[in-house]
């Protein structure tokens, strides 16, 4: 299964955000036999999501949005306050987004954070833990992570996470 979100050009020349899902079908011997492609219009969904992200940037609380797909968690959004808490600014967004969240957690605290993630994967909608995370200077900052599941289905768990500075 391959899933991407892209802009497709319509017959009238306009563009629409669409989710393209490709499913590879195999024969009984395990050889690729055919491909099925599904295209879903997600223009309204992305428009709503964009508005939410703009709103989250105005909140004076450090917020990150994480998505869990196929069991793998990745950070998809960091608001301005979280950049500040971690010692970054918006110009560092690419650098910060390319860092795996768990790699920023102090090694002795990773089990507590991993347990929280597993709880969310197993159906818990709200979870919390205290840990130390590495900030841009290389030092570790003690924070409280609070998670709240915003969306849950077969393919995706979207989690809003607040980061509270405990120092």
Question: What features would you highlight for this structure?
Answer:
single chain; 167 residues; alpha+beta; five-stranded antiparallel sheet; three-stranded antiparallel sheet; 5 helices; 25% helix; 46% strand
Provide a descriptive summary of the structure in words.
With 167 residues, the protein is of the alpha+beta class. The chain is 25% helix and 46% strand. It has helices at 43-57, 80-85, 93-97, 101-104, 110-121, and strands at residues 2-9, 15-26, 32-41, 62-69, 72-78, 126-134, 140-152, 156-165. The strands form two sheets. A five-stranded antiparallel β-sheet has the order 5-4-8-7-6, with helices on both faces. The chain is globular. It starts with a strand and ends with a strand. The relative contact order is 0.13. The model has no long low-confidence stretch (mean pLDDT 82).
Helix content: 25-40%
How would you sum up the major sheet? Answer: 5 strands, antiparallel
Proportion of β residues?
A: over 45%
According to DSSP, the number of beta strands is 8
Shape: globular
Summarize the structure.
The chain is an alpha+beta fold. Helices cover 25% and strands 46% of the residues. The mean pLDDT is 82.
């Amino acid at each position: 299964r391959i899933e991407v979100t892209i802009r497709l050009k319509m017959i009238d020349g306009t563009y629409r955000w669409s989710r393209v899902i490709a499913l590879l079908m195999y024969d009984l011997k395990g050889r690729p036999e055919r491909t099925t492609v599904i295209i879903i219009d997600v223009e309204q969904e992305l428009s709503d999501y964009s508005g939410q992200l703009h709103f989250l940037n105005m909140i004076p609380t450090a917020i990150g949005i994480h998505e869990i797909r196929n069991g793998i968690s990745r950070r998809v959004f960091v608001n301005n306050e979280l950049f500040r808490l971690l010692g970054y600014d918006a110009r560092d967004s690419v650098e910060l987004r390319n860092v795996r969240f768990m790699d920023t957690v102090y090694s002795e605290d990773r089990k507590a954070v991993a347990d929280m993630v597993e709880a969310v994967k197993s159906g818990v909608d709200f979870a919390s833990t205290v840990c130390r995370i590495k900030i841009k200077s290389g030092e570790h900052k003690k924070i409280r992570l609070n998670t709240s599941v915003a969306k849950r289905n077969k393919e995706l768990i979207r989690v809003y996470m607040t980061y509270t500075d405990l120092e």
